[in-house]
Amino acid sequence: MKIEIMIYAYIAICVSMILYNIVYVFILKHREKALGTNSAKLEKVILDELERIKSGDEVLEGHKKFLKKSLQRTAGITAFDKALENIFKIEPKLCEEYLMQTYSVFEYLTHKYISRDTIKIAYFPYILQKYNILKHDKEGKLTDILLELLRSVNVYCRENTLKAIYSIKNPEIVVLALKVIDKNLSFHHPKLICDGLLNFKGDKENLKEMLFESFNAYSVKMQLNILNYLRFGNIRCDKEMLELLSNEKANSELRFAAIRYFEKFPIKEAESIIQALAENLEGRTWEYQAIASSALKSYPGDVTFRILVENLSSTNWHIRQNSAISLERQGYTYHDLISVFDGNDRFAREIMRDRLDKRNAEKEAMKA
Amino acid sequence: METIKNIFDIISVGFVIYLIGYSTFLFLSVVVGASTLYKKKMQDRLMNKFTDNYFVPITIVVPAYNEEVTVVQTVKSLLSLDYNLYEIVVVDDGSKDETSRVLIEAYNMHPVRRPLHRSIACQPEEFIYESHEQKVPLTLIRKKNGGKADALNMGINAAQYPYFICMDADSVLQYDSLKKIVIPVLEEENVVAVGGTVRPCNDVTLNEGRVIKYRLPKNILACMQLLEYDRSFLASRILFDHFNGSLIISGAFGMFKKETVIAAGGYDHGTMGEDMELVVKLHSYCLTNQIPYSIKYATDAVCWTQVPEKLGDLKKQRKRWHLGLFQTMWKHKKMMANPKFGAVGFISYMYFLFYELLSPFIEVFGVFTMALAYCIDLLNLPFMILFMLIYASYNSILTLTAFFSRIQTIDLTVTFKDCMKAIMLCFFEVTTLRFVMAFVRLTAFKGYKKKKLDWGRIERKGINI
After folding, report:
1. Interface of A with B in 199-218 (CB under 8 A)
2. Most buried residue, A6, A139, A323, B167, by CB count within 10 Å?
3. What DSSP line would sit under B87-128, residue for residue?
């Protein structure tokens, strides 16, 4: 009897599965169809408003009320996005004016969206950034809400919000945003922060100043993101980087970032420090010597040559490899490195020969 | 007679519980899998995705053995991937054919004397060739034969980037697969491995990693495997992903964090299922050393592969997989129901033990018991037929659910004819192929010691690229 009961349960599961599948397919089909119909309708309505703007009138209050109501639904805002995307291609200036006049709608909607499911919330800052709507937020009314969205557990919500914040072009808000992200418990990948900052189109010098003013308020991870952004963004900050490079007590990762910075932007004052770091460990970890050996490619000279040749015989593979690359990049030949090739260190010979062979092959390829 | 009847009663109840357990698991996994895919689709629709390109540096390791027919095309397809920061390392594991020569000639490669940083032990290299004329650096390492795991270890040693992808030399990565497979790394901290989705591409036309024409394989055996792949990838892998319990990342397409793999010891030379063994080893290593980690599954990172079209080849492949499963489970037996390993030990390990490793024994024993019960007139035949029909129908429906969910969510379209073909074949797959494969897996252990370094060749047609 028990077996029969189990079989009935089996059938019930089976039937529920079929129903689940059928219902899902229908919902999906309906949703896709509805999106097309709704966006076509909205396109017509928006075009009517654009006609009014063209003739010098303002957007009707009734239209704003309609937007406030319909864009609260996800289906409504996706249809609006689709419709506006199409119109933007034809009438960008009129669309800008339309968005300026309807700005109060988005201000209203921001308050509504903040309490939604995070997947739905994420779409809203995307729209704000896509159509650059926040430039109409002259009084910064939405700043606090946007900063609040950065506390979301959804990485896409945080990412879309950060992009919306960068679109405001206000360094002060960017600094605040980074502080919120830094304090947040959810992980936000360093690459997203660093590459995201590179998209900031506002006053970069001002941003740099403000970032360094509050530098000590950030965690080491965020400080590292900032230093990497400055390096990748070709934003010169020699003084601050030199301070970090010289500071024996500073965090190792930050000092590594400073060494890499001076590899990209060599200055006389950094040379002897980097040479010293490449020359011996003095209780430091091997990474210092490896990274400094790599940076020395930007500081040619007799001292550098001597240090790099010595480092070719290091017991650490990375130090050997980086030293060989630096020597090769500085244009030394087999003849210059005769002491290495005639020496007893097979590892040094092999790694150096490989680099020089590679350079020759690249030259040949260039000629071909 | 009463005792025999009692024994049969116990066996029948045991079987029903076993099947109910399996069906419940399938039900849960298909529901979770389908809803995850639909949620993913909604996320994409609502721009819950990275709209900019974020490139995590990746090394693609292609282990090759006697691949002179396919290796040039494989590299060509890899060079056309829509990604900016990667390198390709082909490891020729002492092929007896012209694998290295065809590659050197096709890409105008030149010899180098590059010293390798040997973080993991592997057979020595015979020569290294490189080419810098391509979109990305291309390296060929010819080494002494040592098996697929050994070739992969060599590839890891040569990899210059922090993440590496392992793939088969006869598979094709979809043009956007690298962009998709790095997403979990950007989304979450401590991701040490990401599995991609493997889809059969027999009779699918691809151009530079893009699907030009999608259709179900003409070959019935290949078509049934497609249904099986969909069920397996949609079902168990997504469900296990929810509790960080994935035990398998297919050797055809998976991405790993180099540093963690090296720390865990790399691929095991001694197992045939080196792909599964590595994932189980990563769980074991991270949990034992209390290292925070996660192993993810990227549903939309797709790799297209040829599945066997001959029963002989399929049998060879499945025997190899089953041996690999056994070797891995045996090697990591300490994980079995061990509280130290949490859900991985209690759910994933036990599922693989009962419903994968032991399933052929249980299923064949079931058939044998039915035959015996019928002989001594203890079998309620109508009830048995009804039960089997319900079981088969149920599994068929779940298979179809997986198939259609996949089709819908990855924006592929199939013809009405192909839909009908899938509907008809799914029943056949559940009732016939599954039992044939159970017998095949049962005989997997026959002479397995001889096969340790065997690459397990199967006959393939060229991929339409």
Report:
1. 199
2. A323
3. EEEEEE-S-SSSHHHHHHHHTT-EEE------SS--PPEEEE
